[in-house]
Every structure is written in C-alpha cells, then in structure tokens.
Amino acid sequence: MQLSLPTIQDLFVLITAYLWIFGVLGFGELLRRWRHYSAAVTRKFIHLFAGFAVFTVPFYSQAWIALLVSFPMLVLIFLASPKSPVKSLRAMFEVMAREEDYQAGHIWGPFLYAISINILVAIFSLIPPLTPYFILPAMGLTAMYLGDGIAPMIGSRFGKHHYTIGNATRSLEGSLAVFLGSFFGTWICWVFLDIFARGGLPVFDIMQIIILSAVCAVSTTIIEGISPVGYDNITVPHLTTGILFIMALVLHPLMLASILFPSIN
Q1: Domain end: 108, 126, 144, which one?
Q2: Strand 168-171 to strand 162-165: parallel, antiparallel, or no bridges (unpaired)?
Q3: pLDDT in tens, 46-67
Q4: Do both 90 and 176 map to the same domain?
Q5: Which of 59, 133, 158, 265 lies 20 to 30 Å from 19 when distance is taken between CA atoms?
C-alpha cells in the first residue's frame, strides 16, 4: 500500500468530519447547560450522532486519511477526565459521564465506542481490497449508533417484559428498538454511501440488500441482548460487521476473488 499526502479535497473532508463531531459534542453541551438535561441524555445524543462522521470515508482520495479524525478523537476521549487541567477535556467528560465514570476517572463507554470506530476504519482503509466494501463496517457501526443507542431509551420508558442474561437485565421492548433502529440504520448507509459517495455494493440487487439489512438487524439484536454490560460498544459493531461480511460472501461469492486477487479486477 502506497501512501501519499492528503489533497485539498481531503482537507475539506477532514474539516467537515471535525465540524460534525464537535458540532454534535457542542450541541450536547448546550443541552446539558441551557436545557439542564442530565449527562445520560446528552451522552445518548452523542452516541446516536457523533459516529456518523465515518460516512466521510469514501470521500477521501485515500481512505486511511479518515484515521486522522478517528484516532485523535480516541486520544481526546481517553484524556477527558474530571481532573484534567484542560477545561475543554473536563467539559467533554462532563457531557458524557455516568456516575461510575466519575469513580473510574474516564468515560469508558465512549472510549470503547471510539475504539470500535478506529479498528473497523483501519481494517477497511489500510487494506485496499477491502475499501470498496466499507459499507459493511458502516452498517455494523450504524447498528451501534442507532440500534444500541435507542434501546436504553425505549427500554427504560416502555419496557415491561424483561429478561436477564448474565448480569444484564434488558427488555423485549428495548430489543425490538434495537432491531428497528439497526434495520433503519442499514438503509441510511445504503442510501447515503451508494448515492452520494458511490460506496455501496452495486453487485447486490434490492432483495440482497433487504437480506443484508435483516441479517444486520437480527444479529445486532441478539448480540446486544447477550453482551456483558458495558461491552456492547465493542461486541455489536465488530461481530455484526463480521457476520455481514460472511453473508456478503454468500450472496456474492466473486467478492472473495476481488479481495484476494484485486489486480485481476
């Protein structure tokens, strides 16, 4: 893989990604200060929307440039602390921190969220034959943003039928929200990346797209339902992406040849 310096277009895309992320963080802080929402509310708002910055990946001349956004954000989230000497890092902590985060001194949920984004973006950007199929990790990540993101809100408000696996108690209503959010999220990926960024999978017809969307929704629902508390930001995107990748190979076997032997395409 040969790397080159970012182009002017890349710089504009980088700026757009940063503006999106800090815009979401800033709006979360606005909700917390002026509307007096709790950090739990603003944390969910950020969980739902901040990660969509990865949708800029197909717009770069080289996909790896997206790591110039995701990795610095990972470092900032790790450094965010209630005792940080930097005011903006303290504010970043406060807008997303739960009670247990104050005890730990770090916001581990968002940190794992950022780790997942970095790992999947790195795999599908630093391995060129995988880059055309970035739609797959985008679907897995969107399932984390929307599916996993709305589950606690729906479950806490409407959940009446509960089940317990390990040390985690969830509701059927929350799990249904995961399914619907994930299914809807996959279609956001298809529409945006295929139409605007030419990053979809044109080898698939509409029925295959429906199958992948259903697989994503079912997989995310099951994975979220059995994941240990606090680790679904890792399990959901990675396992869902892996399952989607396998299903994509089943639906289109020639995809494997295009990955293993990209020079013959």
Answers
A1: 126
A2: antiparallel
A3: 999 999 999 999 899 999 999 9
A4: no
A5: 133
